[in-house]
Amino acid sequence: MPDLYDGPIIDAHHHVWDLGLGRHPWLAPGARVAHRYGDYEPIKRDYLPADYLRDIAGTGVVASVYMEAEWVPGDGMAEVLTIERYREESGVPGSMVAQAWLDAPDAAERLAELAAMPAVKSVRHKPGGATSHAEAEAGVRSLLSDDSWREGYARLAGHGLHFDLQTPWWNLDDAHRLAADFPETTIVIDHAGVLASRDDETVTAWRAALGRVAEAPNVVIKASGLCVAGTPWTVEANRGPIEDLVRIFGAERVMFGSNFPVDGMFIDFRGLVDGYREILSAFDSDAQRAVFHDTAQRVYDPRPLIDAIS
């Protein structure tokens, strides 16, 4: 068995936020939105680059990718400019995924603005759709199949932007069709296709859905967001899903993401990284480096922290 990975790490999915700005409605006092993790009250606090840097200290993280954090809808450029200021002041993040409403009347203009920002490598627009496997089987479709939304999506390739897709695994057949129709655009599946439980039936169906969407070569996936409501993050609970991701997609199409501070409700950053190191030691050193660093480097090209502070 290979040694535990001790090389550089890129965190391909994290947030930072200043709640004093009042730009995150879901994190406002008294706000409650449906969340797969249940009660998220513990993360209703500022989480700034200094907090993130403290969390990653000594873990091997050399660069990071910011994920849009449900900023006030339609105000994505303001979020990008805020994060860009953090980036220049602290080096966090190295690159970013921006909010973009692909079915908005001004989508063309907004995408052009975002693409002009060098740190923006991808956009995210959660597509809604079926809220259960049964609804998906009954024919409930997401925005991934909507003609107006797809017109916006079609513009991404021209701007060299990727698309980050956060949707439950039962909507991934829509994603497979989207990937086939727009082969020049990379789809990054966030949070491993949102595996919110570990019962055998769910895991089997999730694994099958991943196998189908992995047939599209322009799809990659994040090993992130794998916590389960009410359950601590453990190696035992996550070994199977993480190994499945690597075996289904190949290590060169899988990347580590912390989803901090959200997943910090379940485990500290060092514990998370050490858990991934233990799980990924089942694979050879090249595969480990791909998941921890090379895939995210290729997809997001984040500026390293050492370059930002030197």
From TrEMBL:
One of its GO terms (molecular function) is hydrolase activity. InterPro entries: Amidohydro-rel, Metal_Hydrolase, Metallo-dep_Lactonases. Keywords: Hydrolase. The keyword Mitochondrion does not apply. Residues 10-301 form the Amidohydrolase-related domain. PANTHER family: AMIDOHYDROLASE, BLL3371 PROTEIN. Belongs to the metallo-dependent hydrolases superfamily. This is TIM-barrel fold metal-dependent hydrolase. It comes from Microbacterium phyllosphaerae.
